[in-house]
Design a protein that fits this description.
52% helix; alpha/beta; globular
Amino acid sequence: MSEDDRVQKTLQELGQNLLSFASEGLDDKAVKKLVRTIKAARRNFVYGAGRSGLVGRCFVQRLMHIGLDAYFIGETLTPSLAQDDLLVVISGSGQTTSTFAIAEKARELGAQVFAVTAHPSSPIGKLANLVIPVKGKTRLMEHESVAPFTSQFDVATLAFLDGVISQLMADLGVGEDAIADKHATVE
């Protein structure tokens, strides 16, 4: 297999995973509850480790772009989390030690914890107030794939969370002009 074939096959595999997730795997009731809770929360916090953290940072940026108070746990400018806040944690395996510890502390503080994971019955899934199952291979290596390691889960989660942002924009009456207004001007 040439390098060009692997690139093409990876793109096709990631696309197929997204199509399958969108048509078969999306829990509409959970998505609606997530959107409602984000809108009602005093502040929205997000956490994930590794690539899940990068996806989480993308989500926080979009939440900020549409005018919501949003923070990524662990940044120097992140305020304290408290009751009436929402924490969205991202963990493909649902077993990430730091993610579990942060979710557990958030629950102790009275915040709601929603988990985005490929493994709803995992420790993080069991701890969460709501689980959003996202299809895709994780570090648990559930199946063979051309796409490297956790890429299926990461890409599907990014696409899903962008869909959540799109719904929030519609619900809040926020257009892309709001994103443009809050987009970085010094880069």
